[in-house]
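Weekly modeling sync, notes
Attendees: S.R. (lead), two postdocs, one rotation student

Agenda item 3: backlog of single-chain predictions. S.R. asked that every request posted to the team notebook include the full sequence so nobody has to chase files. The rotation student volunteered to paste the first one in as an example of the format we agreed on. Action items at the bottom.

Example entry:
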Amino acid sequence: MPDVLTPTPLPAADLAGLFRALDPPPFALVRRAAPDGTTAGPFDVFIGTMDTVRRVTDLPLGPAVPGGGPHTLALLPYRCLAERGLDCHDDGTPLRVLRIRRRHTADHAALTAALPAVRPAGDLLGEGAGFDGSDEDYADLVRDLMVDEVARTGLHVLIRRDFTARLPGHGPAMVGELFRRLLAVEHGAYWTFAVYTGGPHGAALAGASPQGHVTLRNGRVVMRPMCGMLRLPPGGRPSAADLVAFLRDGKESEELGAVVDAELAMLCRISEGDVRLEGPRLRPMARVLHTECRISATAALPARHTLAGSLFAATAVGRPFADACRVITRREPTGRGYYGGLIALLGHDDAGNEELETAVLIRTFEVSGQGRLKLSVGATLGPRSVAADETAETRAKASALVSALASGGPTAGGGAGGHARAGRGRAPEAAGGPATGEGGGVPGDRTRHQQGSGRQPTSPAELAWCPSVTAEGGAGGHAWAGRGRAPEAAGGPATGEGGGVPGDRTRHQQASGRRPTSPADPAWCPSVTAELDRRRAHLSAYWQRPRRPGSRPAPRPPVLLVDTGGEETAPLAAMLRGLGRTVDVRPAYPAAAAPRTVAPGTTVVLGPGPGDPLAHGDDRITALRAMTSALLSSGAPTFGVGLGFHLLLAELGLVGAARARDGATGQREIEVFGRRATVGYGGTRTVVAGPHTDTLARRLSLTLCYGPAHGELVAMRGPRTGGVAFLPASVLSVEGAELLDVLLP
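Predicted structure, as returned to the notebook:
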């Protein structure tokens, strides 16, 4: 049969035939969010042949299809990180490729009609279903990591746990039924999908991913970093006070900033400028709500190399990225399989240009050919983490998907407002009564933002009336289900007030002096709108500012940017170019590659990176100190950022001591030579002045700037040298570009 890549409707009878075939071909069912953020409408049915390839850059190029469209669907396992030289367990999980031979569309009605005669009935959870360890085991791991890794290094890292079960009668019909149930229980997914490798007992992936990762379209690369999580009460109905408290939470905003910075670093490596930051936005799911941003830039690489250069979403790993990879390898005893990887569609537009679209493989079931099911979930641990909260977060993330395995599948009580059964993650019967104790989305497991108000929170359908939410429903954003309609997944409009704990108001709600009201109350919507605006105002003005067509900054002296090992080097280079500098990036380590001489008229910028500038016996720091000394002796104007700044201070004799920073990444308001500025920090060390620092600085004609912590050095300027301790290119540095432009020699 010839290939048919022009999408054609697939009748219910043909879809049923695919599910009941004795030896079915490999297929995929994929519903993607529309550009306007909606997820209703038809889904794609891809049928083809399944292969494996060794590397991401070996993915097939495929033909340009008349009218445009995808030619390849790829499943990238987490172990592909090894292609970037990063630590990970090599568990042998294959990089699978579905070469699309036939493309169809189908709708929910066709799926519903195709499944009754072939789909499994009843509870899909067998005996022994549950997490691979107790909640206390996971909490102990979190506490151990906080002491041994996070507190010492300021790391943000996602650590997983696995929910496992055995499916009855695994096969293509089961895969179709999983897809149907996921569509019903998770209304806010970026992609909902099910992929089957073929044959009577093939392996499968089925998921409802909330997050897109990298997209290539119309000459632009887009990434969608997501972090922060609000566990929703039963019914999925957050109150105004809960949303505002969530948006004000320092831990949540700090985590999102760290993730956006990590993915900004990836974006700047695979693009050629014109970077734009949008958000944060709200992305509500059935049981949880996230914040996400959208960053984009001009594309520089073909689709396969764009994909290879963006492995993987920092949301599923952490930051600093390489350090998080090492911790995951040490702390997670087994490989991750596909968890944290990507599902990708590669194709062409109607003009023959390459296109790429991906979703992160989280909230995803992995099913072996023997019907063994695994669902991995994790929580991002950072300096402000609390073990109990992170443990509850893992259950909240799993709860909607686990409810899809319940007896009879999703019902009116098991859609957006269903509850996970307490104890081993089991889901309730179809009638679904409230559970107690452990799960995300169960009464008894509410966050500090959600511990009840006098009035029950409003529904997602009502929230669509709020300008702050509907404004987020454009490209890249996703408004509440139905843009003003009740979630179809729940079988109809939400009813009643459900899910609150009357009289148990949060500290945020107590402070307001009033109980949350409906979004019809004008006092409600402005509070959320204002909080989102405040969050945006606390992100980099430079990255949010669109470049005017044809506008170019005046040329400035060229820069030699020395890479000292920080992932922030790429965004710093992009910012310098945007400020009119020609930038040459050189590695500082190994020592043989480090620059020692500089072309006349060039400014040297020592970039950010990890490390203690006063460390003894550290070969890397010793080499960096020697390079810094040589550059200062050359007479070239030299500027330092982060570690580079600390190295300059150390070589000039201006450091009294180096000490651990209280919170390695985060945002602070400081004064920089008489100007108040909001800036972001990275790294784990800060340096403080010694007893003779000021005297020596005056002798060298240098002016020092001190931070709020006693003796902390945050900036320096002089005739031929200067620097800052913070990261000007971080999204958390609101005035970073302006300060860099003013202070750079």
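Discussion: group reviewed the output briefly. The longest helix spans residues 250-269.
Action items: rotation student to repeat for the remaining queue; S.R. to check formatting next week.
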